[in-house]
DNA sequence: GGTGAAACGTAGGCCGT
DNA sequence: ACGGCCTACGTTTCACC
């Protein structure tokens, strides 16, 4: 990854279009940013090579896939050793319900985004996964009722 | 969107591959899931039409783009009227630093994900945007130090 | 950065199961 | 109703200007 990449207005435009529609054809993209297809493709290839574009993903509609329950969960550990952090993070990696795990500043160490089919499925995760980890000290759940903005969806 | 869609193993496989690489060609995808290209394309088209696949996006490397500071911010409003909620949500829609805005249960109403260039840029957002909104009552910031898991990145 | 042409992939009609 | 085959059409990709 390159921390310093010379970016101009056109690169910004390209990234904006690709972030919005990752499957736009190079022809359409070139037209939108006002470049010839080959010049546009060269820029996109450079952005991919330098890691500015990390990849492309299909955005799945979770509710259509049976995910009806989303919560943010703060987790505090009882010991702050590297070993206990690594053990906790490994457990989160393995848990399919955990979509995000962030190490944050503040009263507790971790913030999770958890997606489950419903409240019952969430309770299983809460009890059988989080509840059984010896490092876990405090758990607080914040149920998502709606997301008026979610650019990462 | 269709809440009940008959999904089999192959559809799951297709979604998994597209979630991983949204730009895989239909030819490669067909081979991976063990279908002919036309049959595969028909399934993908159906998944798009029913809304299971909501779209495609390029994943941008934020650090390469100058985003060096990420925080989760809880926001409490002083009035719980529909009008004040809508005003707040409109302000969040306009703010480019706000990447996510979730309406949550608990002591406060909103959880934001905020991405800024650095702490200075974040302070501007905190003071000039959040601080000037009349509806905002309580603000608490949790700085992200790392994300051991982030499947939505 | 633009042009052109060959290689490649897509998309849709058609048929078999 | 769903998968496979074939083909016209569009797109990508590359050497060259």
TrEMBL record, chains A, B:
One of its GO terms (biological process) is alanine catabolic process. SMART domains: HTH_ASNC. The keyword Transcription applies. Residues 7-68 form the HTH asnC-type domain. Keywords: Activator, DNA-binding, Transcription, Transcription regulation. GO terms for molecular function: sequence-specific DNA binding. GO terms for cellular component: cytosol. PROSITE patterns: HTH_ASNC_1, HTH_ASNC_2. It comes from the Bacteria. The keyword DNA-binding applies. PANTHER family: LEUCINE-RESPONSIVE REGULATORY PROTEIN. This is Transcriptional regulator, AsnC family.
């Amino acid at each position: 990854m390159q921390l310093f990449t010379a970016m101009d207005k056109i690169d910004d435009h390209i990234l904006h279009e690709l972030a919005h529609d990752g499957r736009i054809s190079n022809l359409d993209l070139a037209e939108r940013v006002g470049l010839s297809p080959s010049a546009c493709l060269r820029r996109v290839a450079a952005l991919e090579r330098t890691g500015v574009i990390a990849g492309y993903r299909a955005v799945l509609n979770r509710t259509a896939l049976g995910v009806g329950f989303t919560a943010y969960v703060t987790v505090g550990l009882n010991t702050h050793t590297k070993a206990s952090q690594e053990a906790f993070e490994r457990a989160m990696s393995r848990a399919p319900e955990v979509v995000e795990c962030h190490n944050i500043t503040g009263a507790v160490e971790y913030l999770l985004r958890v997606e489950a089919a419903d409240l019952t499925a969430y309770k299983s995760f809460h009890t059988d996964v989080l509840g059984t980890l010896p490092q876990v000290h405090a758990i607080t759940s914040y149920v998502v009722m709606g997301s008026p903005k979610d650019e990462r969806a």
